[in-house]
Amino acid sequence: MSPTQISRYILSFSWIYHGFFPKLLHVAPIEKLMTASFGFSEKISYLITKSAGVGEILFGIILFLFYKNKIMVYLNILALIGLLFFVALLQPQLLIEAFNPVTTNLALIGLSIVLLHELNVKK
Questions:
Q1: Which of 22, 55, 105, 114 lies 20 to 30 A from 72 at CA?
Q2: Could you give the angle at which helices 42-65 and 70-90 cross, rounded to 10 degrees?
Q3: What does the pLDDT look like over 61-109, one tens digit per residue?
């Protein structure tokens, strides 16, 4: 399998997985903590979490389909940086937990850079 396809599958899978399992199938405690940081009621926080899950799944599908579009890959990188910044701002203690957003997001940004490189090489 090519580096392009490996990057494509892992990036798309990550968005879909993180949208479905900890947000739609079962709202994970960390997800509750993150949305509660906004100060909304529990019901509104729940709806925000569910909406974020749907958004992440849709983004994962769109990225899977349009992985050759460099704008999509750059949006992916910006979203990963934005989410990392969001965690650092609202719940910085999560940055030192096991399987934290630093290691996850940096690895996914690295795969995004590999994908961009591969797209440039195949011109």
A1: 22
A2: 150
A3: 999 999 999 999 999 999 999 999 999 999 999 999 998 999 999 999 9
